[in-house]
Specification:
Elements: H1 4-21, E1 28-29, E2 41-45, H2 53-64, E3 72-76, E4 106-109, H3 113-123, E5 137-141, E6 151-155, E7 158-161, E8 168-172, H4 173-184, H5 190-193, H6 196-211
Parallel strand pairs: 1-3, 4-7
Antiparallel strand pairs: 2-3, 5-8, 6-7
């Protein structure tokens, strides 16, 4: 069963895509739920809207259809905080995407190319979380996974790699190679290998991604 919210978002994305590709003028409203500060309302291109879960989710789906910018939107930069109302998350099963085909063989990764784009562009702002460099980027596990926790077998002959968005961080390829050697495959924890400022920055980005999970 598809969640009503997912149907609404799919319809919104379909309409925006059609108007964009046919040069029809349109302006779209983004997330306003639980927002109360009118000074935080802005109008701008969807590619520049920030701190808005609906914008993120809409951008992610539009990007999958080949639309990265060119749609004006109304959005709020107001952040949730203590004492403010919050939207209740839907059940976890509503967010499970895709099915494993009965004839699939080999190893499948649980993330799509659009998930990768979302992580790099939205969560890590298109740069390495370690150095701020914007080129030669890669995603790598932040922590060493527990033994036996990375592979599951759903269908005979089909192995599925278990990796979640919240497991990954963005670094340059060179930094990722060092991190993988010392942390993912080595015997160090991030706290032992990096200074406190870097660890807190990464953890804050992972918490941020987690807070937006219910909107994807």
């Amino acid at each position: 069963m598809i969640a009503p919210k997912d149907i609404v978002l799919a319809s919104k994305v379909s309409l925006l895509t059609y108007c964009h590709k046919h040069d029809l003028p349109i302006i779209s409203s983004m997330g306003a739920g639980c927002k109360s500060d009118p000074t935080r309302i802005f109008i701008g291109d969807i590619s520049s809207s920030t701190e808005d879960p609906l914008s993120r989710s809409t951008r992610r789906r539009l990007r999958a259809l080949g639309v990265a910018s060119g749609i004006p939107v109304v959005y709020s930069t107001e952040k949730p905080g203590p004492g403010k109302a919050q939207l209740l998350p839907l059940p976890e099963e509503e967010f499970q995407k895709g099915k494993v085909g009965e004839d699939a063989q080999g190893l499948k990764l649980g993330l799509s190319v659009y998930d990768v784009g979302y992580l790099v562009e939205e969560v890590y702002r298109g740069k390495s979380v370690l150095s701020g460099i914007t080129t030669r980027l890669a995603l790598v596990r932040w922590r060493k996974p527990e033994a036996g926790s990375t592979i599951k077998v759903d269908v005979e002959g089909q192995k599925n790699s278990i990796v979640r968005l919240g497991d990954l961080v963005c670094m340059t390829k060179e930094e990722a190679n060092v991190h993988e050697r010392e942390v993912v495959k080595g015997d160090k924890t991030p706290e032992q290998f990096y200074d406190e400022e870097i660890v807190e920055l990464v953890e804050s980005r992972l918490r941020e991604e987690k807070s937006f999970e219910k909107y994807r």
